[in-house]
Fold these 4 entries.
Entry 1:
Amino acid sequence: MSVADDIRSNSKDTFGTAWTVRDGQVVPAASDLKLSNDAVRFETATVLYADLDASTGLVESKKWEFAGQVYKTFLYAASRLIRNHSGSIVSYDGDRVMGVFISKTQRNDAVACALEINYAVKNIVQTELEKKWKTDFKIRHVVGIDTSTVRAARTGVRGDNDLVWIGNAPNLAAKLTSLSADKPTWITKRVYDYLKDKQKLGPQGENIWRKWQWSQHNQDEIYSTTYWREIK
């Protein structure tokens, strides 16, 4: 069978086969699903993307050793905190990591994680960088968070495949990371409406979030903050 025939056969089978869907209780691994139209559904899942800002300029202007260490330390900090807040790491994509939260407090868990990522980047990773390198480089990042019904399916070819996450939350959380790193945490209204005071209010009882109209996506109501939560 030629490559064209193989692709044609896959398209015919995929478009011609009904989905088998089951409700998920835990975040699946790729091996938990078939390569056919098989999916796990979560009525509500919260997706967090943590993205290293301006990484193109970083690799173009700095030594590869420096850029590599920035990548590694940023992704480690974000990943360690995702797991610490009961999230599951489901994807690494170059300079960013995707986490999925499915607990009853998933929105607050994800936002607490984002605030701690902000603290870790600015007060731990940046500090250690400056001890080892004589540079004025500042690590900047953006975290995007959204929540929705989400389905996970397996995609790829035999021997080389992974999960794809289908739903508004994965798409919009990723798109939020294209917004300004001057306000490193961005969330949708669907997330904001569920926040408890610990994730909504600052040390003086002030609301830490600023509301925006998202011009790049239907004027949706979104929120940003510059605050962080100290890691103990």
Note: The longest strand covers residues 141-157.
Entry 2:
Amino acid sequence: MPGIEIPAIPRSWRFPAQLASVPRVRRAIFDALPKPCPPQLSYELRLLASELATNAIKYGASAGEDETIELVFWTADGYYWLAVSDPGEGWPRLRTSDGEASGGRGLVLVEALSEVWGVAPRAVRGKAVVAGVRRTGW
């Protein structure tokens, strides 16, 4: 119907819960972005997906088990949305990290890159961390 924008159908992927999957997560987002896409926006969305996936792998999956994480990417209501799900029971929380720590800044980065983010339980087990980045200026 003319004049009505049909929303994008979400894209989703499953990856092994291994740090080697993080570059594949970044590539999936790069490939899913509309072309052309401003380089800064592309970079920020890939960085955001990378941080969410790394946290899900490090803190949401059990070592030694054959587990996966799920990445979902879609546009709605003027935002690009990313959700990364893992089977873990623990919920992420924003922490302050001293300047000497080698980690612990993932959610600080997620908060800086996204307009909104939060955690939602999954129907079966685990949770999804969802972040939205406003689509403006192009």
Note: The radius of gyration is 15 Å.
Entry 3:
Amino acid sequence: MVSNSSKEVFIQGITHDGKTFRPSDWADRLCGVMSQFRPGGPQPGSHLTYSPWCVPTVINGVKCVVVNAELRDAEPMAWDFALNFARDNNLQMADACLLPDPPKQR
């Protein structure tokens, strides 16, 4: 369950049955569809990069999409689309916070 106070929601590429979600590029496809939703709205060429509000990543070997709550505030229908995608496909979701990678040691 996702709370209304969540800052980020992780949509995981694992179903509630524990199966890996297919197709394997689902996260890239979802983020591609969401690329137009970004701070300042769509700009020329913005379809060529992911929105900072909907980013694909891999966590512990599982493909995920991190959906930022700023999307909910700016474009509620886009937020609903992303979360309904997860629900419709029986994907696991978690409230969490994506932390930046630590600086590399020299």
Note: The first strand starts at residue 8 and ends at 15.
Entry 4:
Amino acid sequence: MAEALLLRTLRLNCLTNAYADLWSELYDDSWAQDSWAADWPGLPPLGEAGPAWGWSTPLRTERARRAALVELDALVALMLDIDAEELIALYRSRFPQMLTYESAMWFDADGRKIAENFNAFGHGQTKQHFEQLMAHLDPEVNGPVPDGYTAPFYKADREAEYRQAHAVFSERLRRSGWQSPAAPDADGAS
């Protein structure tokens, strides 16, 4: 799982060519086979970045960057032996403001964020964009797509995304033969 953690971390942080040497030094050929754990329709393949840093190496859209952060949370939770429901309980109890912001947050087909709260606005978003989105999503109004955005829209749902990513990473770990440090050994002792 360390490789999955490193890939997502570097794709989030290696934003400029100043990181080219670091990227090349740490690049692992196995990353080409890595894929997103949660279902993120419309995102480019996670493992598509090659051994040489390029402009497309870092995750640049708001949705792709959020996807990597969600999956990093799930990976670290597994490494700390925190199950999915405990991770969600931590999210609810320790990050109530983020929960509020994400309750009215969508992403367009190009990965642009659009949110109700001005503290969570996506890049270049205005209040009118959110109002246009609500009119667009309302079946009775069926308004046009907000100016500068591309349908379809995907609703942020961190709890469902956590559950899915946690389940996929748990299965990957199980197939690799990894056993949780807290799991009982063959004799039943932990």
Note: The mean pLDDT is 92.
